[in-house]
Amino acid sequence: MILYPAIDLKDGQAVRLLHGDMDKTTVFNDNPAAQAMEFVNAGCDWLHLVDLNGAFAGEPVNAAPVEEILKQCKVPAQLGGGIRDMKTIENWIDKGLARVILGTVAVENPDLVREAAREFPGKVAVGIDARNGRVATKGWATETDVMVTDLAKSFEDAGVAAIIYTDIMRDGAMKGPNVAATADLANAVSIPVIASGGGSSLQDLKDLKTCGAPLNGAISGRALYDGAIDLAEALAILKA
């Protein structure tokens, strides 16, 4: 499994939110590129980036810090938030992004996901953010009637590289990931699944690794910043 350290960007800073609430923000680093380099120097093979402002605005807002991260860090990075048309997808991939994450458009314009996956093989992931089993969009502000597994299955033949599954009520809360729901999703589809939200200890990572489903990796944010998860130990556990 791959450990994806999360760098969530709001107003140019690296932050974490509680339950996806933009009003419940903790700033961890005002230099996101420096934060990214810390993770890379510690041995991380990937970076997970989120443009939080962009997710609400529907277009890139924190492009400058993302571009600086891509310039300084020589490991692949994936980015979500405000990527909702082919031009934006093309621009990010041209700038060296390894993988775009499409969330809101996966619900509202699934044909775009299919087109992008065909145009850029291996470089398009679907972000599925869930509250009580239902998909939420537009920076988690809008709850839909779409069920997580139904949405994931609809992309089985699309050629997407991964599904990033976030349980919103676990995200940033340091109460452990929703292991059961993540495993159920990973067992329901053939697309690689990346777990996100709530991982707060090395035991949580061990639980995901042994959940009975073939997870591609786990995203960790607040626990890394708070020191609740030791990065070197986490990498060793997931790579074992």
Notes on the structure:
This protein is α/β, with parallel strands linked by helices. Helix content is 37%, strand content 30%. The protein is built from 11 helices and 12 strands. Strands 1-4-5-6-7-10-11-12 form an 8-stranded parallel β-barrel, surrounded by 7 helices. Helix 9 (202-209) packs parallel to helix 11. The longest helix has 10 residues, at 32-41. The protein starts with a strand and ends with a helix. The mean pLDDT is 93.
Question: What topology emerges from the helices and strands here?
Answer:
Elements: E1 2-10, E2 13-18, E3 21-29, H1 32-41, E4 47-51, H2 52-57, H3 63-72, E5 77-80, H4 86-94, E6 99-102, H5 104-108, H6 110-119, E7 124-131, E8 134-137, E9 142-147, H7 148-153, E10 162-167, H8 179-188, E11 193-196, H9 202-209, E12 215-220, H10 222-226, H11 231-239
Parallel strand pairs: 1-4, 1-12, 4-5, 5-6, 6-7, 7-10, 10-11, 11-12
Antiparallel strand pairs: 1-2, 2-3, 7-8, 8-9
